[in-house]
């Protein structure tokens, strides 16, 4: 395999080249002390592997690896680092190749053989076809592709990083913003190490799965290109925006569309940065779910109406409106105990949450109904 070596220390480059020559298997095309020159050479030489020092004076080695991926996506990168515990832990967590300085021949040989095996597997395997994929954001963040497979997130931070880029899709997202959101309590240098290793592995995972999503590096920012892949939120909202289409739906189709809202936006993860979007989408669902329930009530489909009022109440227990509708609906059905139960639940909720009583209108209706 063909390789480039990059390290700002001339002696380190000489030693690494000497050991690789002794081990065999790597044709060293060139060595560089300047990262910019190495990146320029990689664009034309298309090496199989680049041995890259982490601690470079102008461009951090991890950031340089990002640029290498942009230039030559299939290149293998081996990080070379002096012993820094946080960096080593980051590499091991993300399953990235690394060797420690001073470089030990046995460890280097093991790394070379592992990369040889990976390159052989790539050559023998058919190119990963672009998998039809779909992104789910309601309830939990997941990417489905191929035959009902789900992309495996190596870490929860990788999942959150992708989720945030998706939330800001088609926008440039500053790297310092990502660091502040995902690693707010981590020392800055360590936080950027985590960011770069997470981005690097995310790209690898997407590529291996044949998912055509691209994370583009734009200097001090990233952007997400979905490559035409749709999400459940996007599909749900697109239909919502077309009022004429909604009006033309049958009751069954309208209910089916409402059921696409499987849960709140990233509900299981509780991302604080997603709270406003979560509330916005929830309020849209509530508006249309209430609209559907009232429509069913007008049509005399009271059991279905009651089911939807209860579903809304379960998701939004502090909304007085659902209690009122259910009380009156149960009263018409002669279900006195259920009507009374709704009123008592409403009273308890109002006292616990607002230190108040139900509205005067509801109290008046309830008193009149009890006397009837």
TrEMBL record:
<dbReference type="Pfam" id="PF03704">
    <property type="entry name" value="BTAD"/>
</dbReference>
<dbReference type="InterPro" id="IPR011006">
    <property type="entry name" value="CheY-like_superfamily"/>
</dbReference>
<dbReference type="InterPro" id="IPR051677">
    <property type="entry name" value="AfsR-DnrI-RedD_regulator"/>
</dbReference>
<dbReference type="InterPro" id="IPR005158">
    <property type="entry name" value="BTAD"/>
</dbReference>
<keyword id="KW-0902">Two-component regulatory system</keyword>
<feature type="domain" description="Response regulatory">
    <location>
        <begin position="2"/>
        <end position="116"/>
    </location>
</feature>
<dbReference type="GO" id="GO:0006355">
    <property type="term" value="P:regulation of DNA-templated transcription"/>
</dbReference>
<dbReference type="GO" id="GO:0000160">
    <property type="term" value="P:phosphorelay signal transduction system"/>
</dbReference>
<protein>
    <submittedName>
        <fullName>Response regulator</fullName>
    </submittedName>
</protein>
<feature type="modified residue" description="4-aspartylphosphate">
    <location>
        <position position="53"/>
    </location>
</feature>
<dbReference type="GO" id="GO:0003677">
    <property type="term" value="F:DNA binding"/>
</dbReference>
<keyword id="KW-0804">Transcription</keyword>
<dbReference type="InterPro" id="IPR036388">
    <property type="entry name" value="WH-like_DNA-bd_sf"/>
</dbReference>
<dbReference type="InterPro" id="IPR011990">
    <property type="entry name" value="TPR-like_helical_dom_sf"/>
</dbReference>
<dbReference type="InterPro" id="IPR016032">
    <property type="entry name" value="Sig_transdc_resp-reg_C-effctor"/>
</dbReference>
<keyword id="KW-0238">DNA-binding</keyword>
<keyword id="KW-0805">Transcription regulation</keyword>
<keyword id="KW-0597">Phosphoprotein</keyword>
<dbReference type="Pfam" id="PF00072">
    <property type="entry name" value="Response_reg"/>
</dbReference>
<dbReference type="InterPro" id="IPR001789">
    <property type="entry name" value="Sig_transdc_resp-reg_receiver"/>
</dbReference>
């Amino acid at each position: 395999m063909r390789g480039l070596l990059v390290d700002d220390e001339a002696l380190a480059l000489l030693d690494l080249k000497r050991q690789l020559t002794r081990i065999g298997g790597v044709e060293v095309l060139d060595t560089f002390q300047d990262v910019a020159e190495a990146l320029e050479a990689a664009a034309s030489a298309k090496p199989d592997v680049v041995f890259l020092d982490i601690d470079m004076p102008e461009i951090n080695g991890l950031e340089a690896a990002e640029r290498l991926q942009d230039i030559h996506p299939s290149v293998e990168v081996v990080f070379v680092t002096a012993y820094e515990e946080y960096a080593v832990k980051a590499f091991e967590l993300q399953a990235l190749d690394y060797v420690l300085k001073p470089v030990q021949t046995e460890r280097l040989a093991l790394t070379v053989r592992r990369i040889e095996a990976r390159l052989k597997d790539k050559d023998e395997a058919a190119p990963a076809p672009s998998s039809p994929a779909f992104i789910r954001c309601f309830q939990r963040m997941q990417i489905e592709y191929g035959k009902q497979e789900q992309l495996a997130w190596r870490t929860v931070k990788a999942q959150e990083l992708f989720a945030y880029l998706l939330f800001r899709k088609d926008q440039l997202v500053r790297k310092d913003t990502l660091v502040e959101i995902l690693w707010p309590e981590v020392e800055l240098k360590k936080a950027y190490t985590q960011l770069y290793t997470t981005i690097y592995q995310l790209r690898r995972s997407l590529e291996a799965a044949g998912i055509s999503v691209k994370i583009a590096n734009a200097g001090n920012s990233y952007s997400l290109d979905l490559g035409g892949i749709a999400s459940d939120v996007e599909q749900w909202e697109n239909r919502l925006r077309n009022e004429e289409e909604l009006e033309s739906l049958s009751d069954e189709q309208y209910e089916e569309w409402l059921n696409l809202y499987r849960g709140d936006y990233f509900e299981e993860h509780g991302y604080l940065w997603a709270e406003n979007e979560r509330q916005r989408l929830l309020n849209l669902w509530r508006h249309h779910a209430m609209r559907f329930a009232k429509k069913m009530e007008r049509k005399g489909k009271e059991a279905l109406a009651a089911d939807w009022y209860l579903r809304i109440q379960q998701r939004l227990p502090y909304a007085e409106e659902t209690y009122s509708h259910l009380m009156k609906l149960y009263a018409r059905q002669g279900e006195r105990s259920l009507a009374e139960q709704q009123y008592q639940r409403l009273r308890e909720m109002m006292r616990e949450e607002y230190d108040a009583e139900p509205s005067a209108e509801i109290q008046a209706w309830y008193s009149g109904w009890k006397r009837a």
